[in-house]
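It is worth pausing here to work through a concrete case rather than discussing structure prediction in the abstract. The textbook approach is simple: state the sequence, then state the predicted structure, then interpret. We follow exactly that order.
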Amino acid sequence: MTSYNPFGGEDNNPFEDKKEEIHLDENIQIIKPFNLKKYVLVSSFVITSLFSIGLLGNFLSNDSSTVKASDVDKVESIPHEDNQTVPEVSTTITQVNEANSYEESNESINLETVKETVDTDVDTQTELIDQNLITQKTVQVVAEECGLGINNEENSTAVGSGVLISSDGLIISNQHIIEDCVGDIYVATTNDVDTPTSIKYRAEVIQESIELDLILLKITSSIDNTPLDNTFEYFELSGTDELVLGDGLEIWGFPTARGDGTTYSLKINLTKGTVSGFESDYQIKRGWIVTDADVTYGNSGGAALDKLGKLVGIPTFGTTEGASWISYLRSVDVIKAWLSETNSSTLLTNFSFPQLTIREHSISNIPKYSREDWNSWIDGDLDCQNTRHENLQLESFVNVLFTKSDNCYVQSGKWFDPYNGEFFYFASDLDIDHFIPLYNAHLSGGWKWVVNKKTDFANSLLDPDILIAVKNSTNREKGASAPDEWKPQNMKYWCEYAFDWIRIKHEWGLSATLSEWSSLLEMIDTCPDNFTYEDAKNWDHKMSMEKVLKYEQ
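Step two, the predicted structure:
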């Protein structure tokens, strides 16, 4: 190819110096050697003097310019976290160009940037601590006996993620995780980002919504049966009002892709994305948060956090739109509205007493109740006195009299009925009330008990509050009712009644309905300021005189 000259020709090349011929004037006289030396000496003296004057002027000018830059920025030193300071920058500048450079750099100093640089190590450490804390608040949900499994021959295990929302073990997750599951539900946890999960707790369903794909779980016991201390780390339910399009999001959970394919012991996983949009649902403006963050199997029900680490939603499902993957997060706005509508929001209160598992009765899915299965009023020690008459003797404030000399049946004594605030003197006026009615115990989980445990519960004399002597007509009015259907007429006793109801159900692993729990909280609102959950328990079958005087009508 012929070479191309963009300048048109050799004569127009700007990079070529023009060569000019030097013509000497024939009339110029040649200076004698003596005179040349004289002129050179004088010229040197003049040049040296001018140079010295110029140097002095430059020095004075530079010094004045440096002080001005310092005055404008008003920065003498930069504080460090350890209260030390960066030495003040020298203001002695020897060249004009260096002084100008110093002025320009001073104008662009950003103190926040400097502080962030100084605190890099601290920020890094804080980030690690926060990540482990997030890990402790995010759990793995494992449900057994789901569906029919492969080839319709065996049940399978379902796994997903969940977030703790209370210190006593309430968990929000997606309902589809436990869909068609009839077995136990377990909660697996880990304390840091480097350790796989292990199953630590059992959980039960409190509330669920197929329509919203939400489920509220409650940790009920530990796998090793050690007592729960109710000090779980948990997320506060925030909101989406401060989210804007383009904000960063973090998705925390336990995708099954992180496992080995045979176990469900997984390390926590983090993916990131941005807020791509919002969609309304459940009459909530931001019912869904749309994001480009990756959500895979096992992530469902995990934690979606904003740039400040606040819980704004839970990843629920993903879909493809063209070549893009779009994930949908169920917003915390919907979660809060759902909990409020179902009255489950009261469960988020951190109570000074045990919180019962909330579960609605499902009569069609449990065996039919039979009182004979509970074997009430047995004669456990074969002394001819059954449980009723043993209890009458224990509760009487005076020695009882029997109907016959065989001392099998109690005839009279002195008993205090806290339901009515009255004393009674004839056994025929009294019934022995199962404080938790046997039918209610059956519906609340007792149906799963073996016969021996049912018998122990129905005849327990170890706990003075399980069986109580009360006016027979009052006991029959109560029947099998829970506190949302019946309360003692003696309102002074409501506080203790509610605390005892909660304690007995908690100790025996029985649940409560949401309506029942709400009524118990209403009764507890009547408690005197100095009366606690522990005060309610009676350590003797005979109620203390202090309490008798308090409850007597």
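Step three, interpretation. The mean pLDDT is 80. The chain has three domains: 33-114, 138-147+156-344, 363-551.
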